[in-house]
Design goal:
By secondary structure, this protein is mainly β. It contains five helices and 57 strands. The strands form 13 sheets. Strands 8-7-16-15-14-13-11 form a seven-stranded mixed β-sheet. Strands 1, 2, 3, 4, 5 and 6 form a six-stranded mixed β-sheet that branches. A six-stranded antiparallel barrel has the order 46-49-50-53-54-57.
């Protein structure tokens, strides 16, 4: 056991002649501090599994030599150092400084320092949170918070299950063993326990302990876990309290799984839900899963009430946990590899619930197209980081049935052909080349289709597309070839077979493959021509053994680095994978969709796919599937987009040199295309226990994205072809259109060298005149 010595020093500032200036808290009774000390010491003894004993020196009050103005000019580290010196604290004793002054309320623990807590924030939950940073730093040299993953980013401090979450959010409780401060009833708030990832960061979790169940990433298996009560003691025996899996998630880090119960330091978990009658033996339990990150933070992946037979998909990690029997002694958990990565809405368009959807993908980007409730064609673009448009863009010039056919295909990078059936049943085509549309829709005459015919298209080579659709009368599939000028030949009939819905994949050496749902075959619904196995172009052959209503949709694509796969609109949906010798299938989770609601699958990464789908309210969604650890789902969507310009202190405009693909400068005297930046709003995220951070990305005129080299501390350039961490920035509004732009490393800011008239950099640590800009929204 390690004995760690602390002393609480309550400070006030001086009036300049040695007298104390009263702070916002009238008094902090000795009885309150004594109870707080005792409870905090007990907390860390329990949380560390008996590894740490907190010893307290007698409390001190200190009238600082600094006046208020002198004191507020110091950073937190400077305040801690000054108070330690003035209080004449001995070596080996760590000061917990309680500052009772009129500076803003906050709590902080700089690296290598003990905690600072403003008197208005004084409560056990805050003190133990800050001491958690102290123990993290001296345990592993890394500190972090308990976060929750979100699209693009994470909500810092948002995990309610851990003491390292934010105040006002986590599952604290009023500790009856601590008398409240007269001015603040919340001053008794305590708990919850530190989660296993944070305990490990303090150096208190031993994977070799019998109370830690270690699972192999590839084999997985099962675990019976007792309730988590903190780090297992060094000499602990008995049933495990935590299971870990190494090498998982985007950073191949450590996964921690435990069971929490609303007792002891976790009694605040009672806020998580009603105590269930399923648990007459005591308070309800929750399955919690956490992922370590390289930043030192933990990510809460799952928080599910323990109910036998239920399961939790971890989404960011390709694992599903099934909850088995539970007794007062332990909860049985089974771990399975699971490709399901969840589903998310792509907002900004309203369709009919039976509307069709089409996606064309190339590399790490994709286009999505639908027909809205009014019969207009709408589109969205995924740039490798997020879906850009909210609301969706309009492609004017054609009117369609809201349930009409729609298909699209990427001919080359950035060149997409989209096909729709108009209200006369004629197929219309339009092209998008990067951000520019062809002048008008062009008809592809013939085919014998109608306004609701199912359409499909696939790329055969960079010049040629196969387009096909189902004829309304006889159900025969018609197909034709399309080149850059339009139809390259007459429509012809596929081998006769009455079909309802159609899909297509390249099958380059066979002139394209068609998949369709057979209208009159009760045993096999999905068929293809030429068949993947027999390769016979003269007939159809069945695909797998699924049987379902033929009006339910199917969608097919080629998986990156592999072969064809088909998603069928069964309930729940089913995916079929062609291995080269046989069809394998996997049933996916249930989706809230009507039987005929559209589906469109696409693949951006090896062993992985996505599928767009229309829900029962007519909203468009995307789900993701992948067994890969490094998989990033294409389910993010920017909140808004706008065009902005930045003006430096000298009056010069910020510009992307040559319009993009080069450096950034602040030397322009004119306002033109190079000075305009498209700002994509990622979202606003919680930081610092309630403060907010606005995250944005910027795109140049030629389509490149602005990035800070290394994430900050060096150059500002516009050379990225898609948004990654270095291309995301924090926008801080100062008022009156003035802003600063922070880098992802949280340490540097955009800076106009010399205040303007020269290059742009991202290497300044302070927000001064060179780092502030006037930002104005302008027309695109």
């Amino acid at each position: 056991m390690a004995n760690v010595r602390f002393v609480i020093v309550v400070s006030t500032v001086s009036d300049g002649v040695g007298n104390s200036v009263a702070g916002p808290v009238a008094s902090i009774p000795a009885g309150y501090l004594a109870a707080l000390r005792a409870r905090v010491a007990k907390y860390w003894l329990d949380t560390s599994g008996g590894r740490v004993q907190v010893d307290w020196e007698p409390d001190q009050t200190l009238v600082l030599t600094q006046t208020f103005d002198q004191w507020k000019a110091l950073d937190v580290g400077g305040k801690l150092k000054s108070a330690w010196e003035q209080a004449n604290i001995g070596d080996g004793i760590n000061v917990i400084l309680v500052a009772n002054d009129d500076t803003p309320g906050e709590a902080a623990t700089p690296h290598g320092y003990p905690p600072y807590v403003h008197a208005t924030w004084l409560q056990p939950a805050v003190v133990t949170h800050e001491m958690g940073h102290f123990f993290q730093w001296f345990g592993t040299g890394v500190t972090g918070h308990a976060d929750v993953a979100r699209t693009f980013f994470r909500d810092e401090y948002d995990d309610p299950t851990c003491i390292m979450g934010g105040e006002g959010n986590k599952y604290t409780f009023r500790d009856s063993l601590i008398p409240a401060l007269p001015s603040d009833p919340s001053s008794t708030r305590s708990g919850p326990l530190m989660n296993p990832a944070m305990v490990d960061q303090c150096g208190w979790l031993d994977p070799g302990s019998p109370q830690v169940r270690v699972l192999d990433r590839d084999v997985l298996g099962s675990a019976v876990l007792r309730t988590w009560t903190g780090a297992p003691p060094e000499d602990g025996v008995g049933m495990p309290t935590v299971a870990i899996v190494d090498g998982v998630g985007p950073e191949e880090s450590r996964l921690y799984v435990c069971v929490r119960q609303a007792t002891g330091w976790d009694r605040g978990f009672a806020k998580a839900g009603v105590i269930s009658p399923l648990f007459p033996q005591g308070p309800a339990r929750w399955l919690c899963a956490y992922l370590a990150t390289s930043s030192g933070d933990s990510l809460l992946l799952a928080r599910e009430q323990v109910v036998e037979g239920s399961s939790a998909s971890l989404k960011l990690v390709p694992i599903r946990i099934r909850i088995g029997s539970t007794t007062p002694e332990g909860t049985n958990l089974e771990f399975f590899r699971d490709g399901w990565r969840g589903s998310a809405p792509i907002e900004g368009v309203e369709c009919e619930p039976k509307a069709q959807v089409a996606v064309a993908a190339w590399g790490t980007t994709a286009d999505m197209y639908v027909i809205d409730r009014e019969g207009f064609v709408r589109y969205n673009h995924y740039n490798g980081d997020g879906w850009e448009h909210r609301p969706w863009g309009l492609i004017d010039g054609v009117r369609c049935d809201p349930l009409g056919g729609i298909a699209c295909v990427a001919r080359t990078e950035g060149l997409v052909d989209v096909f729709v059936t108009d209200t006369d049943g004629t197929v219309q085509r339009r092209q998008r080349h990067h951000r520019t549309w062809s002048p008008a829709w062009n008809p592809i005459d013939g085919g014998g289709l109608d306004e609701r015919s199912s359409l499909a298209a696939c790329r055969l080579d960079e010049r040629t597309i196969m387009l096909c659709g189902v004829r309304p009368g006889d159900g025969v599939v018609s197909r034709t070839l399309v080149d850059e000028f339009g139809a390259a030949g007459n429509w012809e009939s596929a081998p006769p077979f009455t079909m309802q819905r159609v899909a297509a994949t390249p099958a380059e050496d066979l002139g394209g493959r068609i998949y369709a749902t057979a209208a009159n075959n009760p045993d096999r619904t999905i068929w293809d021509t030429p068949d993947v196995d027999t390769r016979n172009p003269a007939g159809w052959d069945f695909v797998g053994t699924l049987s379902f209503g033929a009006r339910r949709p199917i969608t097919a694509s080629r998986m990156v680095g592999a072969d064809d796969f088909v998603v069928a609109g069964t309930a729940p949906p089913t995916v079929l994978f062609w291995t080269g010798t046989e069809w394998l299938f996997e049933q996916l989770p249930e989706l809230d969709r009507q039987p005929e609601g559209g589906l469109s699958c696409f693949s951006l990464q090896e062993e992985s796919f996505h599928c767009a789908w229309v829900d029962s309210d007519g909203g468009v969604n995307v789900f993701a599937w992948s067994p890969r650890q490094d998989f990033a789902p294409a389910t993010n969507q920017y909140q808004t987009e706008s065009t902005v310009v930045f003006q430096a202190a000298t009056g010069h405009f910020v510009q992307a040199n040559s319009g993009g693909g080069d450096g950034m400068s602040a030397n322009s005297g004119n306002l033109g295309a190079w000075e305009k930046l498209r700002m994509l709003e990622c979202g606003t995220y919680v930081i610092n226990a309630g403060a907010k951070r606005r995250v944005v990305a910027f795109q140049t005129d030629d389509g490149h994205y602005v990035g800070a080299t290394g994430g900050g501390g060096s150059h500002l350039v516009a050379t990225a072809s898609q948004v990654g961490p270095w291309e995301r920035f924090y926008l801080h509004e100062l008022g009156y259109s003035r802003v600063t732009v922070g880098c992802i490393n949280e340490s540097h800011f955009w800076s106009a060298v010399g205040g303007g008239g020269a290059a742009m950099a991202a290497d300044k640590a302070d927000e001064k005149e060179w780092e502030s800009f006037t930002m104005v929204a302008v027309a695109p």
